[in-house]
Amino acid sequence: MMLPGGGISGMGSDMTVDDAVSSSKRGVLVALSLVAVVAALLGAGYFFFGGADLVADLTGDKTVAETPSTPAPEAAPTTTDAGASESTSTASTEATEATEPAEDTEAAPSGFTNTDTNSNTAATPPTGDQAARMYWEQVASQEQIGKLVAGEISSVSFGTVTKSGNTANVRLTVTGKSGSVSGTMVLRNYSGVWYFSSIARDGSSLAVTTGKAADLGIVSTLIANQASNQSIVNGIISGGYKTCTVNGVSSGSGTATIKMTVGGGSSPSTAGSIVCVSKTIGGTKNWFITSFTKN
To answer: How far is CA 177 from CA 173, 254, 260, 290, in A?
Structure first.
């Protein structure tokens, strides 16, 4: 219904038909602009937030192209020994070989006289109490050790060997300038190594000091040298040697070497020596047997 002034009913007295059309066009343009802005925003979101992955996850389509990953760099070579990749059986064999005793060609620890072909330098040494016991048993054995160093003994015969636990008792017949006497030599085994401990004639009890510290220098010397010289001792225990002939004694201020030849048993005769060192205890010079060395 037309009203005076050319206005449209219900739209106000000032709006014409042309104004209404222009207003509609502006609305359409604004709407299109908003659509374009939304589309642009969606495109940016698609790019920045992994639209391809979202599509693949929503549709289940795994054919969406993915950016190839860069291959990881190869690991640097390790310092593992060449044999590390060998089979378990080979590794077990090598482990077994590694536990075998070291060869005698290896350098012996300080204080060792490694002239023996049957050394056992890798053995666990005696405990402090065990070492002290051997030390004081040698002190108590001075009657016979003193005669040996003084050159008063010419020969020794080895008789029955009786083993009990870690102890071997060797029956002896000792012949010297004053005749022959019977007695017993005691050897003790610690960690597979035989050590000289005492020697006494029959009827002579050994007054052994107990609970007293030993001289560490003497103990270290006798343990080291006896551990590295086992052939003659083992030969005596096994019956390989039945006799010992003393060929002479050479001595200095604190050492003595008794030259000897052992034989008479199942093993061939061989030359060797008994090496001794001395220490003054309570004003008295005492001698200690440090080893039975095979030449």
So the answer is: 13, 24, 17, 24
DSSP 64-76: S--PPPPPPPPPP
Q: How many CA atoms lie within 13 A of 166 on its CB side?
A: 13
**Which residue from 292, 287, 283, 293 is spatially nearest to 135, judged by alpha carbons?**
287
Looking at residue 102, the DSSP 8-state letter turns out to be P
pLDDT over threshold 80, residue 241:
yes
Pairing of strands 179-190, 193-201: antiparallel
DSSP letters, 105-158, are TSPPPTT-----SS--TTSPPPPHHHHHHHHHHHHHTHHHHHHHHTT-EEEEEE
Contact 292, 271 (CB under 8 A): no
pLDDT at 141 over 80: yes
CB 293 within 8 A of CB 115: yes
d(CA 100, CA 231): 18
CB atoms within 10 A of CB 170: 20
In the chain the first and final C-alpha atoms are separated, in Å, by: 145
State pLDDT tens for residues 183-217: 999 999 999 999 999 999 999 888 888 888 999 99
Facing residues of 272 across strands?
260, 294
DSSP 215-283: PHHHHHHHHHHHHT--HHHHHHHHTSEEEEEEEEEEE-SSEEEEEEEEEESSSPPEEEEEEEEEEEETT
Name which residue leads in pLDDT, 248 or 48: 248
Cβ distance 228 to 108 under 8 Å?
Answer: yes
